[in-house]
C-alpha cells in the first residue's frame, strides 16, 4: 500500500522543527519503502504492507515521538483515498479567485462534527467530504476569513490542512511510486 503521512504543526514558527532528510531517514530505518518527503510541512510518502491504517497511524506517531519528541497527531491517507478526495473537490473550486484548502480530519473525528464548530464569514465556503473538509476563501477576503481564527480551538487539533496545489502534487508523487 502507498500511504501519505500528514504531520500537523511541524516547522511552523520555529516549533516542532524536523528536517525532512531526518524524517525520511527515520521512516527508512523503520522499514518503510519508497520513502520521500515533499516540502517542509511534513508530508511523507511511503509504502508499507500494513493495511490497518489506525494501527499504522499509532505506530508512526510513537516512532515520531521517540525520535523527535514530536507529540502531534498525524493523518494517514492511502493513494486511493487521496485520489478520491481530489476527484470529489467542489466544482466551484475551478474559479480563479479562490484560495482552496483541504482539511484532513483525523479519525475518529468526523468532518460534519468539525464543520459545526467552524465560524465562517461571507468570504468562506465549506463543503464536507469523506474524511475531509473542503475550505475555500475568496482571494479578496483572505484577511476576513473565519478559517484562520480556528487556531487553538479543540477542533483545530483534529485536522491538518494542505492547499490544493500541494495535494495535487502529493497525488502525482504517490502515483509514481511502484511497490516492489
Would you write up a description of this structure?
The mean pLDDT is 90. The termini are close together. With 180 residues, the protein is α+β, with helices and mostly antiparallel strands. The chain is built from five helices and eight strands; from the N terminus they run E-H-E-E-H-E-H-E-H-E-E-E-H. It has helices spanning 20-29, 53-68, 79-87, 111-117, 164-175; strands at 2-7, 33-38, 43-47, 74-78, 98-105, 124-129, 132-138, 159-163. The protein is globular and about 50 Å long. It folds into two domains: 2-79, Alpha-Beta Plaits, CATH 3.30.70; 82-164, Alpha-Beta Plaits. Strands 2-3-1-4 form a four-stranded antiparallel β-sheet, sandwiched between helices.
The total of beta strands comes to: 8
Taking all Cα atoms into account, the compactness measure Rg is 16 Å
Question: What is the structural class?
Answer: alpha+beta
Helix content: 25-40%
The largest β sheet comes out as: 4 strands, antiparallel
Strand content: 25-35%
Taken in chain order, the helices and strands follow as: EHEEHEHEHEEEH
Principal-axis shape: globular
What fold name goes in the CATH topology slot of the largest domain? Alpha-Beta Plaits
Q: Outline the low-pLDDT stretches.
A: none
